Each structure stands twice: as C-alpha cells, then as structure tokens.
Amino acid sequence: WCWPSLLPAALVSPMMVGLRLDFSVLLEPLGFVKVLEWILAVFAFATCGGFQGETTLLVSCKGVANKTITAAFAYPFRLNTVVFSAPDPKGCGGTWTDVYLTGNFSSSAQFFVTLAALVFLYCITALVVYIGYNHVYQQNNKFPLTDLAVSVLTAFLWLVSTFVWAKALADIKVSTGASMIPGIESCKAPGTTCRFLSVTSMGILNVSVVFGLLNMILWAGNVWLVYKDTNLRNQWNRISESP
Fold first, then answer.
1. What is the DSSP annotation of 118-136?
2. Are 222 and 127 in contact (CB under 8 A)?
3. What span, in angstroms and rounded, lies between the C-alpha atoms of 80 and 98?
4. In the chain, how many domains are there?
5. Could you read off the pLDDT of 167-215 as tens digits, one per residue?
6. Considering the domain boundaries, does residue 15 fall inside one?
7. What is the radius of gyration, based on Cα positions, of the chain?
8. What residue numbers bound the domain in which 208 lies?
9. Quick one: 121 exposed, middle or buried, by C-beta within 10 A (0-12, 13-18, 19+)?
10. Any idea where the MARVEL domain is (predicted)?
11. 1 lies in a domain?
C-alpha cells in the first residue's frame, strides 16, 4: 500500500527538489534587466527578420510606354537573386535582359538575427535560474562567473553585429534606390529610358539598428550588475584585502 505514495516522490527529479520560486527577483536590478534584454532581443529579431519590401522602376522603350517593373526583396537580403520583371522584351526590340539587384547581405542580416534568437533563449534560461534557483546562483561561484562571461561576450557581439548590420543596411538602401539605375545595362539601350519610382520604406530596419544599440548598452550594464549583485564582488574584496 505504500507504493502509490512513494511513486510521486520517485518521479520528482533532483532539480525540482531544489526549486524555490521567488518572483521578487524580477523586481531587483539583475532580474529586471534580464527581462528587458529578453524583450529587446524579441524586437531586434522581429524588426529585421520580418521585413519585406520592393523597389519599382518606370521603364519606357519602343512599343512600351511607362511600364512599371518591380523587384521584391526580404530578409535575409540576398539581393543578387532578386530580379525585376521584364516590361516586354519583344516590345523593347529584344534589348531587355533580366535585371538583378546588386549585393548579398545575408551574412550580416543573419548574424544579427541569429544573435537575437540566441540571446532570447539565454534570457529565458537565466530567468528560470534566477526565479527558481536563486539560492543556488548566489552560493555557487560557477553560475555568476558563467553569467558574467556570457554578459561580456554578448555585449561585444551586439556591438559587432549591430555595426555590421548598420553598414549592410546602408548598402541595401543604395542597391534598391535610384543610384542603381546607371548600372542597369538594359536601360542604356537606344530608345529605352528608366526612372526610379519608389522603394518600400526601411524605417523598421532603422529601428532594428536602434534596438541593436540598446541591447549592446543593456548587456554592458548587465556586466556590472552581475558583478555587483553576487558574491563575486565580496570575494574580490577579500582577495584584495588579504596580505
């Protein structure tokens, strides 16, 4: 008769035995900043990874007047695979060939978005530790040291990825704007004129760069919080005071 009562206890893992839920940690700087980092990582991921746009030209050639052609592009911004729809090759005297946008910016965009996704997952893991195992976190030096090392590395990666992505975004604007027309050979054919018409606003991509900078600043501040709010600071003080 004792087996039914012992079965639940046997199914409880050692980790669950040490679980002590304490949501007050979220009101402290260490936990509150982690929540902000989690939210900003989501925004950085969404504003860059969810973008879709198109650029449009107005083409006039023999037999075809004011024909609009459009090239749709999106994350991860492999623009060299994006082609304009032909206005009418026969109508243009057979001079029109497939026109592709210029540049492949997938590495910069994917670096930025992948970092945001990894940070999102790490923040969830850290919050679980803070809320459920804060007593272990404070007593075991390995957890604060790991958290500190990750914070330093993440702040650096946000710095690098944000500036790399900002440079790529500037090049994307050039490749999809009016400055691309001189590089289109089909527009140089006799009797053919091309005029830039419009491009989707990239304000949301500008916002993604801002979120990258905010993440960098927040993670840099988190380095100090991890050092100050754990026993690492006290241990360092004891070491420095010892003869």
1. HHHHHHHHHHHHHHHSHHH
2. no
3. 12
4. 1
5. 999 999 999 999 888 888 888 888 888 899 999 999 999 999 999 999 9
6. no
7. 27
8. 23-231
9. exposed
10. 25-231
11. no
| Residues 6+ positions from 32 with CB-CB distance below 8 Å | 26
Q: Name residue 53's beta-bridge partners.
A: 73
d(CA 44, CA 50): 10
Cα separation, 159 vs 217, in Å, equals 9
Name the strand (E) or helix (H) holding 30: helix 29-49
For residue 162, give both structure tokens.
Answer: 């944000």
Bridge partners for 74 per DSSP: 52
Q: In whole angstroms, give the CA distance from residue 159 to residue 157.
A: 5
For the whole model, what pTM was predicted? 0.83
Contacts of 205 (CB under 8 A, 6+ apart): 47, 48, 51, 169, 172
Residue type, 96: W
Asked if residue 9 is part of any domain, the answer here is no
